[in-house]
Design brief:
The complex is a heterodimer of chains A (201) and B (246). Chain A has two domains: 1-110, Orthogonal Bundle (Rna Polymerase Sigma Factor, Chain: A); 116-189, Arc Repressor Mutant, subunit A, CATH 1.10.10.10. Chain A contains nine helices and no strands. Chain A has helices spanning 3-14, 18-40, 43-60, 70-90, 97-106, 116-135, 138-148, 154-161, 165-182. Chain B has eight helices and seven strands, in the order H-H-H-H-H-H-E-E-H-H-E-E-E-E-E. Chain B has helices at residues 3-15, 20-32, 34-51, 58-106, 112-126, 128-136, 166-170, 180-191; strands at residues 139-141, 147-149, 199-204, 211-212, 223-228, 232-235, 241-245. In chain B, helix 2 (20-32) packs across helix 3 (34-51) and helix 5 packs antiparallel against helix 6 (128-136). Classes of the chains: A mainly alpha (201), B alpha+beta (246). The A-B interface holds A 16, 18, 21-22, 25-26, 29-34, 37-38, 43, 47, 50-51, 54-55, 58-59, 106-111, 125-126, 129, 144-145, 147-149, 153-154, 169-170, 172-173, 176-177, 179-180, 183, 185-190 and B 7-8, 11-12, 14-16, 35-36, 38-39, 42-43, 45-47, 49-51, 53-61, 63-65, 67-69, 71-72, 75.
Chain lengths: 201, 246
């Protein structure tokens, strides 16, 4: 979708079209969800964060002036929603039984991979990556994911995160190096899959 | 250059194309440094894994769009509400205007209340949700600062035409009119947001010099001075706060 098409849809939403918003949703759902998933490290929180980001975008679309791409803005909202959620989790929010049940009902399992072996291997990689991401500090995780999944340029990252371009560059470098270390791929031969214990921090 | 610097260069090269010179230096280093070669591979692998997007659950689409439709309906209602409030305010202003001309003609108190009750009814009838708020506090604040009170607890007399028995509504004791103290307190709590404590009441045929609370409003009938410790509120025969003495 070009910037012009995107902006045209945004204008339509601002005039009250929910159909136009649905198009923006469809266009962005995969990246938003992936970003949320990588930020949160689990599907349920990712669902909540992605949903929150889309609804926030809808509520605030009246104030969207098109200075950045809609998707860029949306990714920032997603990262913020995920951060908020993680913060709440950390401060020990109590989740009600109904909420848990609701989540389970609302959750569809992801599509199955072609073969069980491939699936197992993919799952292992995903788990390993998610675990490593959760061990990164929040700033590193955010900047790396906005770059890799959101595809934001240095300039966009600089604007969105209010950092100098030089800082963006060095933080990305640090985040990548740290992630490689965490995944034991920092230049040494990749070891066989990480230990099975320690599901999440 | 040390390995760390080459690695920083490798990272940057993933985001923006390196200059030919940088590219050449990188290539030369990678040829001789196995560790950095492995690192370059790891970076590429990592990117591929990070960018492998898993399909979002179908429930996400449904939940987001349900939420959006709820929000859209709420937005519409808010818009209607603001139009509804505007319409109610206009009715009250119109009412005030009519009453003033009538009071000039008759030199008698007019039942302004009929108008504010009518306004409330219009408001409530047209917009159910807005009515909840409007009904909970039966005061309408007109944009020019006038405060008019519908009687708390008393149902609006729907079919009583305003012309009927003007003299009957002139008295302060009429159950359809707010008593001056209620009017004054409601005015103060809504516009000043505080409680002024105890008060005493005095009646005056002609009010002492006061500061009007709204332009172009002439008090109707005899006036009641609601005297608080810090200030005095002037209320007319229709329960309209029209002036302050501070």
């Amino acid at each position: 979708m070009t910037r012009e098409e995107e902006l045209r849809l945004v204008r339509a939403v601002q005039r009250g079209s929910t159909e136009a918003f649905e198009q923006l949703y469809t266009e962005n759902e995969r990246r938003v969800y992936a970003l949320a998933l990588r930020m949160c490290g689990n599907e349920q929180d990712a669902m909540d964060a992605a949903q929150e980001a889309f609804l926030k975008a809808y509520r605030a679309i009246g104030s969207f002036r098109g200075e950045s791409a809609f998707s860029t803005w949306l990714y920032r909202l997603t990262a913020n929603a995920a951060t908020d959620l993680l913060r709440k989790r950390r401060t020990g929010r109590i989740v009600s039984l109904e909420e848990l049940q609701e989540r389970e009902e609302g959750f569809d399992p992801p599509a199955a991979a072609p073969t069980p072996e491939e699936e197992a291997e993919e799952q292992e990689t995903r788990r390993e990556l998610n675990e490593a991401l959760q061990q990164l500090n929040e700033d590193s995780r955010r900047i790396l994911l906005l770059r890799e999944i959101g595809g934001l340029s240095y300039e966009e990252l600089s604007r969105e995160l209010q950092l100098e371009v030089g800082t963006v560059k060095s933080r990305l470098n640090r985040a990548r190096a740290r992630l490689c270390t965490l995944m034991k791929r920092d230049g040494n031969k990749r070891r066989d899959s990480a230990s099975k214990d320690g599901e999440r921090r | 250059m040390k390995c760390d610097e080459y690695r920083a260069l490798l990272s940057a090269a993933m985001d923006t194309p390196p200059t030919p010179e940088e590219q050449q230096r990188l290539r030369a280093h990678l040829q001789e440094c196995e560790e950095c070669r492995a690192y370059a591979e790891a970076l590429a692998e990592l990117r591929e894994e990070l960018q492998t997007l898993s399909e979002p659950p179908a429930a996400l689409h449904r939940q987001v769009m349900e939420g959006v439709k709820r929000e859209a309906a709420a937005k519409k209602l808010r818009r209607l509400r603001s139009w509804g409030s505007l319409a109610a305010c206009l009715l009250v202003i119109l009412g005030a205007g009519l009453i003033r001309s009538q009071s000039r003609a008759e030199k008698a108190a007019a039942p302004m209340l009929a108008y504010s009750a009518a306004a409330e009814e219009a408001h409530a009838g047209a917009f159910d949700e807005a009515a909840e708020e409007a009904a909970s506090d039966s005061a309408f604040s007109a944009p020019n600062g006038l405060m008019m009170l519908a009687p708390a607890g008393a149902p609006p007399e729907r079919d009583a035409p305003m012309e009927s028995e003007p003299e009957a509504v002139a008295g302060v004791g009429n159950s359809f009119l707010p008593d001056p103290e209620t009017a004054a307190r409601s005015y103060l709590s809504q516009l000043r947001g505080r409680d002024y404590g105890d008060c005493s009441l005095e009646t005056a045929e002609t009010p002492p010099p006061y500061t009007p609370v709204a332009e172009e409003y002439e008090p109707v009938g005899s006036c009641t001075l609601v005297v608080f410790d810090k200030l005095t509120v002037l209320v007319d025969a229709n329960g309209v706060v029209f002036g302050l003495i501070e």
